Amino acid sequence: MVDILLRRRFGLLGRNISYSFSKGYFTEKFNNEVFAGNSYENFDISEINYFAELIKNNPDLKGLNVTIPYKEQVIPFLDKLSKKAALIGAVNTIKFTKSGKLKGYNTDYYGFKKSLKPLLEPHHKKALILGTGGASKGVAFALDELDIPYTFVSREAKENIIDYDLINATTFDNFQIIINCTPVGTSPNVEACPNLPYEFFTEKHIAYDLIYNPAETTFLRKAKEKGALIKNGHDMLIFQAEKAWKIWNK
Q1: What keywords would UniProt list here (predicted)?
Q2: Pairing assessment for the beta strands 206-209 and 177-180 based on DSSP bridges
Q3: Rounded to an integer, what distance in angstroms lies between the CA atom of residue 208 and that of residue 102?
Q4: 20: left (phi > 0), else alpha (psi -120 to 50), else beta?
Q5: Paired sense of beta strands 150-154 and 127-130, if any
Q6: Are 90 and 72 contacting, i.e. CB atoms less than 8 angstroms apart?
Q7: If DSSP codes are grouped into helix, strand and coil, which group holds residue 155?
Q8: What is the Cα–Cα distance from 18 to 213, expressed in whole angstroms?
Q9: What local confidence, expressed as pLDDT, does residue 249 receive?
Q10: What predicted TM-score, i.e. pTM, was given to this entire model?
Q11: Which of 23, 56, 62, 71 does the annotation list as catalytic?
Q12: Phi, psi of 237 (to 5 degrees)
């Protein structure tokens, strides 16, 4: 018998998210009779100001995942944040509490940390984070917890951020973990890749791409050709999704 308490709606908030991992993952999960009665759908909005209307028109929602570009923009619409989401400054999971409040969490950092940790060797001492958006904030928080110093890279240099033009052989000597937190290389623009001197990757490097479609981005392929250990974002997504599921059910 299906537990009536499990008859709930969930979804993904984002823009241009027809490719979404989350919908396929949770739909498959809910096809298991243990989770029968649950449903998961995409909520594709063109700008964050439509979020309030979305919530008003879907009063039976119990939880949302949040993806690009709304991980930071959604925060002002929430009633409260978990301690870690507040520290990170980005939200990728929203729980609709029993009192009708919206509480934001970040499970990205958890998924990234759990997927990176098995790859780490003593020589992996410092990381470069490509990108400064919401996803990069969760990555930075995870690196803090792993005691791995990091530097952000963006198209324009700012305080505590370097630009791509500054990356050279010495950079690769000093940073052994390179993490792509940008959407560059996502399907359908699979030939694109971050502007790096890929010839300086070695077998001492980890190249990690939060992108999962395609499974091997141009960034990962070029790094692998130089001997680097590569990892895409698929396992991170599974870990963060299961963490979100626990949050929705606690």
Answers
A1: Amino-acid biosynthesis, Aromatic amino acid biosynthesis, Oxidoreductase
A2: parallel
A3: 32
A4: beta
A5: parallel
A6: yes
A7: coil
A8: 12
A9: 93
A10: 0.92
A11: 71
A12: -65, -40
Contacts of residue 241, Cβ cutoff 8 Å, sequence gap at least 6: 21, 22, 25, 26, 65, 107, 111
Which pLDDT tens digit goes with each residue over 126-175?
Answer: 999 999 988 999 999 999 999 999 999 998 888 889 999 999 999 999 99
Please say if 71 is a catalytic residue: yes
How is residue 215 written in tokens?
Answer: 């499974």
CB 134 within 8 A of CB 142: no
Place of tokens 């498959």: 28
User: Which stretches of the chain are DSSP H helices?
Assistant: 21-30, 51-57, 83-88, 108-116, 134-145, 169-174, 218-225, 234-249
CA atoms within 13 A on the CB side of 4: 0
Tens-digit pLDDT profile for residues 182-218: 999 998 899 999 999 999 999 999 999 999 999 999 9
Interacting residues of 63 by C-beta distance below 8 A, sequence separation 6+? 8, 10, 11, 93, 94, 95, 96, 244, 247, 248
Evaluate whether 164 touches 184 at the Cβ level (below 8 Å).
Answer: no
Q: Round to whole Å and give the CA distance between 79 and 134.
A: 19
Structure tokens at 160: 């505590």
Alpha carbons 124 and 135: distance in angstroms, whole number: 21
Task: Round to whole Å and give the CA distance between 14 and 23.
Answer: 12
* 68 band by pLDDT with thresholds 50, 70 and 90: confident
